[in-house]
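Dissemination and training. As part of the outreach component of the grant, students in the summer workshop were shown how a complex can be specified as a set of sequence lines and then modelled as a single object. The example used during the hands-on session is reproduced here so that future cohorts can follow it. Participants entered these lines:
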Amino acid sequence: MITLSHISKTFPGTRRRQPVIALDDVSLTVERGQVMGVVGPSGSGKSTLARIVNLLERPTSGTVTVDGVELTALSAGRLNEARRTIGMIFQQFNLLDSRTALANVELPLELAGVGRAERRARATELLERVGLADKLGSHPAQLSGGQRQRVAIARALAPRPSVLLCDEATSALDPASTTSVLALLRELTDELDLTTVLITHEMDVVKRVCDHVTLLEGGRVVDSGALGDVVRRPQSPLATRLLPHPQAPVGEPVVEVTVGGADHDLVLTELIRRFDVRVAVLAGSVETLGDQRFGRLQLRVDGAPETVREALDYLAQATPERELELTRAVA
Ligand SMILES: Nc1ncnc2c1ncn2[C@@H]1O[C@H](COP(=O)(O)OP(=O)(O)OP(=O)(O)O)[C@@H](O)[C@H]1O
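and obtained this result:
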């Protein structure tokens, strides 16, 4: 589990350059088993945030706590030890070209003083787990981008970390490799109960593997939460990017509802069961977010005026969130 508390980071200015406030009072918690996507425009502070989690960059103020240990309070020696609990992968893989896949994965264990037989066994097991059992002796130049990232993932996991930081890990990959690497990251997070942070500029990555998302803008957290919650916040800039508002034909009287999660089919079923109304879906957008399906539907509800009013009240009140879901009533 990662807890960032009131983190600010200012890069000092030089004679030619103004100081840069890269992060401004960021507080964030990522629980074990979660995949947190961090999105935001270029320069919003995403990479700085990732580097602050393992203290490659020291915050100007605020605290970083990983699995109950406050990293910002540790001495240099203790910090090096604590960093083993945090694995990191990058867009450019950062593998050593002169080493085989096996030797790359062994490297962090070598540095930690693990004996040869043990580190070889661990590296072999990890490369098998990431689907590269037949590539142990290959050098990075002989591997595809997706395979190199798999080696990098195996290397990051070698010291048995509890946290995995991924900075644009799929940005250099083709669509097929992106799909398989994202699936692997999700599987490993579940299997090893990791706390995973995915820095990305692609919303599609968030939709596919993340269960939580944070939007940074100008170094500040603009929105953060579980995908299913964020998508229901009418004012959230992330909500529309995760699930666009459909466009109903101009002039039609519509209400828009956001349905999703476990009860995604209940709202309409109940509406028709309870009220003597006809319901037409005029437009809709449906997305799979993580492992759940969400939809925004624009509906025309026809019937006797009093019954229609009651039906719309039902839509608004069926659950507390649903009050928010009834975001627009265009008459
Ligand atoms: N070492 C540094 N020295 C000075 N300024 C820096 C340094 N590292 C980052 N910055 C500045 O901090 C701000 C945030 O940078 P950061 O790399 O965290 O953004 P980002 O959201 O990851 O951007 P991108 O998506 O383009 O990678 C930017 O204005 C950047 O220029």
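Confidence is low (pLDDT under 50) at residues 320-331. Students were then asked to discuss how this feature might be tested experimentally.
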